[in-house]
Amino acid sequence: MKPQDVTVLEPPRLTPLENMFLPAVLGGLGTTLLHLFRSVSGNVRTLQYPEERREDRGVLEQGMDVRRYRGVHRLNRDEQDRVKCVACYMCATACPAHCIHIVGDAAPAAWPDREKYPIKFDLDELRCIYCGMCEEACPVDAIELTYEYDLVGLTRQEMIFDKEKLLAIYDQTCTRKPM
Length: 179
Prior knowledge:
By secondary structure, this protein is an alpha+beta fold.
């Protein structure tokens, strides 16, 4: 390596005031005071969950766009009340967290509109990062993220949603309007 190829970087010179981090501390205190006075004036975005729920306050009051919220997953049904999934594995392939596991099988002869269907569809909600890639990758809109956010489980096994549980969420949420 030649000496002219080496660039020596000097750290920036700080003033004695900057060395004590005083401007940064005062800036942080200013931000804290600004948020404190905003909350006193009544413009609060914090909810006292579970006593106060998002639906009670109204989406517009909170300034939230409900279309941007991603909650628990569901598997959709088609017009004949069958699972809409055709076991193409696109959602599992697109998932960056690798939380979707599908086992496909040949569709029954009574289903001429598809070649395969999932006999097993597991989604690990604890591994999921709720990015929505599965929803975008699905060619038949079989998997969807709902607006449900009160997801509770006491064990890891309770948080692994199988096909029946995902279809049950569809049955619960398909009649309800988003917040």
